[in-house]
Amino acid sequence: MSDRYDVAGVEEKWQTYWESQGTYEVDEPGSRPKFYDLCMYPYPSGPIHMGHVRNYTLGDVICRYKTMQGYTVLSPMGWDSFGLPAENAAIRDGGHPGVITRERIEVMRSQIKRLGAVYDWRREVSSFDPGYYRWTQYLFLQLYGAGLAYRNNAMVNWCPSCQTTLANEQAETGECERCGTPVIRRALEQWFFGITKYAQELLDDLNALDWPERVKTMQRNWIGRSAGVEFDLQVVPLAGGGEPSDPIRVFTTRIDTVFGMTYAVIAPEHPLVTSLIAGVDNEAEITAFIQRVTNESEMDRLSSDGALDKRGIWTGRQVINPFTGAPVPLFLADYVLATYGTGAIMAVPGEDDRDFQFAQVHGLPVIETTERPEGWGKLPTLARGQGQF
Ligand SMILES: [Zn+2]
């Protein structure tokens, strides 16, 4: 036996044999248990790179392992062939994106085949093939018919020169990847899926997942809550008079703690903010804060663990707690999003951890609304409310 592995000879011989025998072709399984393995379909972006080799080898190892355990294994391969890379390549090199994409698929298919993985190539699909995307369209129409696909405003990355929205990856540097123009954030009508209608189910099932607590918290913040109460906060007029402001509607899942509200928070991109901050003492500082925050992605904002003094700013305004009649300061903070709930919240530092941290940093009062059982312990230190609001 040779002490060197003859890659070219051995691989080609067995791959030809597997293909001629249909070794990895899977039909309706008989008595064996089924195992389905889907590795994310590659984007046909050009010749494969080591990331593809790594990814599809890992999947192949699992498939072969499950086959040896007695499973009938179905491992399909296909192409995620719509979208930006084809569009960018067509703009850069000229030519029709469909033609470019087909050429790239040819190259990548021959390369991936040489990996010798257990794909059933008879089942190859391409997402840009009308025979495939008619089903995507069918599913969309089902969702639309059920009221689960709808139009709404959302903040997007926008290049004023290209007159187009940009993915976060195309706007990472703050400049348009195509033309270098500074990217702005603006509200634009977008399609949405009504996944928040399933927020409670998603939250409930999250509890059963064996994920790190930090990741679960991030998911909880991201999902939001469905069951709660909305009520209005009247805005205290500025000392110098001026136009009376519309009330601010807030959403809370903990209306039982409303007597502990010592401040409120409104999203920096909330439509009322511009009129609220007009003419307040620190208007320039607030405007700079809004500029910075609205250029960050929602995911970054929700998952940020940055210092809370940098993440919020007083609007210079006060609002009235309708349950006590007490005025409380109104803040802007990056972790409140205009697209969730009503885009504004009451804050109860006596009963919420993040509100408590925020209150400590900004010198806001803390009111406990529930009597702790004996031995429960006190809050570490109660802020005395040294801030000037
Ligand atoms: Zn541009």
Question: How would you describe this structure to a colleague?
Answer:
The mean pLDDT is 87. Helix 2 links the parallel strand 1 (34-36) and strand 2. A six-stranded mixed beta sheet has the order 9-8-11-12-10-13. The chain has a three-stranded antiparallel beta sheet with strand order 6-5-7. Strands 1-2 form a two-stranded parallel sheet. 34% of the residues lie in helices and 18% in strands. The protein folds into three domains: 7-129, Rossmann fold, CATH 3.40.50; 147-193, no CATH class; 228-362, Isoleucyl-tRNA Synthetase, domain 2 (Alpha-Beta Complex). Helix 3 (84-93) packs across helix 4 (97-113). With 389 residues, the chain is α/β, with parallel strands linked by helices. The protein binds zinc ion (ZN). Zinc ion is lined by residues 159, 161-162, 176, 178-179, 181.
Topology:
Layout: H1 7-21, E1 34-36, H2 50-68, E2 72-74, E3 78-79, H3 84-93, H4 97-113, E4 125-126, H5 130-145, E5 149-159, E6 164-166, E7 184-193, H6 199-206, H7 213-223, E8 229-235, E9 248-252, E10 263-266, H8 273-277, H9 283-294, H10 298-303, H11 308-311, E11 312-320, E12 327-333, E13 344-347, H12 353-362
Parallel strand pairs: 1-2, 3-4, 10-12
Antiparallel strand pairs: 5-6, 5-7, 8-9, 8-11, 10-13, 11-12
